[in-house]
Amino acid sequence: MGKVCNTAIGAGIAGAIVGVCAYSFMSPRDQKHIQKGLKHTVDDLKDIADRMTEDM
After folding, report:
1. How many Cα neighbours within 13 Å face the side chain of 34?
2. Could you report the per-residue pLDDT of 24-55, keeping only the tens digit for each?
């Protein structure tokens, strides 16, 4: 189990590094578009979490 967890964590960190590098090479316009998309995603997740806690 330990090797699987370490592999998953390592893959996640590697993916985050690649994502940051790709983001830094984008144009400012594309970066702004990504930021807006992430903001909408976070807002949707907050709404879902609020609905889940209301039902409990």
Report:
1. 12
2. 999 999 999 999 999 999 999 999 999 988 86
d(CA 53, CA 55): 5
pTM listed for this prediction: 0.61
Burial profile 7-46: b = 16 or more Cβ within 10 angstroms, e = fewer: eeeeeeeeeeeeeeeeeeeeeeeeeeeeeeeeeeeeeeee
Determine the 3-state secondary structure of 56 from DSSP. coil
3-state secondary structure of 27: coil
pLDDT band at residue 1, thresholds of 50, 70 and 90? Answer: low
